[in-house]
């Protein structure tokens, strides 16, 4: 080596930057090295000269140059612990995982010397702590040997991916790394009771993995074996849940409490039984675990075993005298749970032990009902074999056939019919299985029922037939099918609605076409006199309206109130329908009973397009109602300037007088419509015209306190002292009403304060008599005449101007109702958008309404409020709880805890608060109406959706009624057509043909959803049950929702059945590796308690299985994750010959 090169290297080692730069200005090679391979960058990195390293790197020094031992500058800086230089080198792309001779990495060197911050930085930069030396040592091994506890903590707290997980001691417990744990416990900061955010100690983690070595160490260091983590979970709960028998024995030998309960009431025996660990169950029972212990929802360990189909666990529990018929707070027996999950083995064991096959849960659901709902054909066969009643009814009269028909489970429907189930049995609402099949769009079920004796025209309580339901849903196939089997095409409900009326309302033109082809009459009227054409006009269903007109419907047919379809279309602003009617010769002059033409309606409701259209078709702008009011009167009163201008341009009489003398100007004055008055004046409206009683527009404006209109009229030369027939001037009117501003304005415009009425009263005298102090103070100084004051005991008679006394047309109650439905705290939107409405029955709605004829009584004549009185509604809902059995929703919903999983009470409380606590039990312990929870106002509606339905009790009284009310039974119900989407199976192309098999020997086939079906030409499927994801946590039927349920779920709700996604019975994982991965995910996300008190992590909705499939017999969970590196074996550390880098 030349002297120059040696000097350059010395300068770099000594940190002399100026000298280094001088050498570099010459011919010195920046990468020159000494005989050992050390160059300037190596030497500066070793000595910590950051400025030299920075300068060398900026001039292109080779960052990957290695010594003869294979060490780079990064190795050397890491060994020396110079974090700043390590940072500079990594920024210049130094390789963090480059191994020198013997396999040393920068991370190993930093770990060997205890440089925790450098270790942390290298890990964050992608250093792999799994790389070992040639002797098999990892960075963790050398850090342990050297006693660098901080480095050990850093390394343990980072897995191979560099993600921070649990504290180091917890990870040592997870790996069963006794030496690491022992070293960490030497640091006072690491306590055996150290907790994660969820409250779990290292002993909890060791219990999960069955790591008895670490557990022994922790117990020897006085770890609390009964330490309660979040939700009161102890290590024994964890070990029992995961079937770690050795750990369970160790904990019990260390005085762990065998009967400790979680916050939800789960004992270790519950956890073991739920997961099917029979050896742990046996051990716990032998050591005195209480087999009859119940969770807060009343679930026993036998319920848990039944849920997972753990026959051996159930057998052990029964051997130790566990009760077969023990019930939950919702009266669910273990057999109910087994039926729900389709667990045939456990169900057979229970039935062999003489459990009651017809036990009734809440609302009367038997295990057979539940099995039919969940499509558990094998359980159905088993239950019937053991004596379950095929005609058992819920409290609302639902049989198993009703349930299976609604759900569309063809194989079960066929099996029940083969075993003599009656298809014509009716619920308390009078609905047969055919009604429910039609309601759920189950075409194939309808066909089966009709072929096996179902009455095609069976009528429910309000006379609805299945054809009415099919017409409402728009299912043409079902309509044709029913008609082919003889359904009466003109059958009427109690309110005289035919299927054609309903199809017209819903806009199902194809259904209407089929009905008309089968000779449905288009002129039948409802109780309100509405034909199908009226209904189509009301709802803007132009396709149906066109079809009806093509079939000869009379466009001018009148209802009871004289309304034609054109009136109706105009009222609801359906311009396209109005155009269609006019094109088909509908008369624009037709008058209703109150004398209104369609133009009156358009004028009042400011429907410019329709008004223009009517005038173009010859409508008379000066047509008078019965009381003499023209369209201009109505438009003026409402302030519709565009309509007023249009009518006046079409020669409407600007000074037209009604029978009482009111002109458009009077009505504009009454409502303070100054812009309208300006238009009227431009068209030569008189400002001083008087009514029969002598009132001018100025009188009217003064009476109603319309000061702006008063000023306008005075500016347009209105007579300020004009008198009525009883001698009242405008000032008298203003004084009588106490309008201070109007009084002042009149006086400023020379109104006479001394004018007297026919009975001698001045404005001052009237104000004094009525006690208007402010008006008296204004009038007293200017009044000179002493008026005649009436006797004190005489009652003052208020004098008022005429007003419009008309039967105003307001939106009908059935249209307005949905706008006032209470908001659900679950869905956050109107109930009308949540549930399918069912046929409406008279007497199910409370309405706040008066006579819908608004008669002028001195006030403005505006449409009456027809909104719901929510307070009355809610009070009434409380009174109607006892009528729940008459509601199909309550009837087809089976108890709550089957819906949400036997052992997940914590998840339930998470969604409900404390709303799931048991309520008072009545009726022999079988009907707990207070515990029926539905979306709604829990505190005021009794938490019952059907109480809400029942509470909408509409009382008409003696009202003459809204002339637009058509008494539509369906529009008064909550409705959302989207909720009646066809079932997945109903959408398939499979249909029975002439070669359909006899029901005596059907063949089973498997449809695309994985469930077994019955059909022609198929063999029995032997496809094994699939693994499915657990429930979506965003949809829990009894509690709050964070998203809208699926279409199929909502179909279930419409019939009172809980949505399938609301049912979560904890799954059993039989794949040990996936269990490990799942546990990793649980631990690292600090959500360990989810495995014992709540549901597993939420899967994506795309992973959900279709409802009712055979794969739901067990709900398995599969998760992905990663485990920590276990490359370091503490038992094989060669302490006496550990490789240590010495430079």
UniProtKB/TrEMBL annotation:
SMART domains: ANK. GO terms for cellular component: cytoplasm. Residues 1116-1128 have a biased composition (Low complexity). Keywords: ANK repeat, Repeat. Residues 853-883, 913-979, 993-1062, 1092-1143 are annotated as: Disordered. InterPro entries: Ankyrin_rpt (IPR002110), Ankyrin_rpt-contain_sf (IPR036770). Residues 867-882, 913-929, 969-978 have a biased composition (Basic and acidic residues). It holds the Pfam family Ank_3. PANTHER family: ANKYRIN REPEAT AND PROTEIN KINASE DOMAIN-CONTAINING PROTEIN (PTHR24198), ANKYRIN REPEAT-CONTAINING PROTEIN-RELATED (PTHR24198:SF165). This is Ankyrin-2. It comes from Elysia marginata.
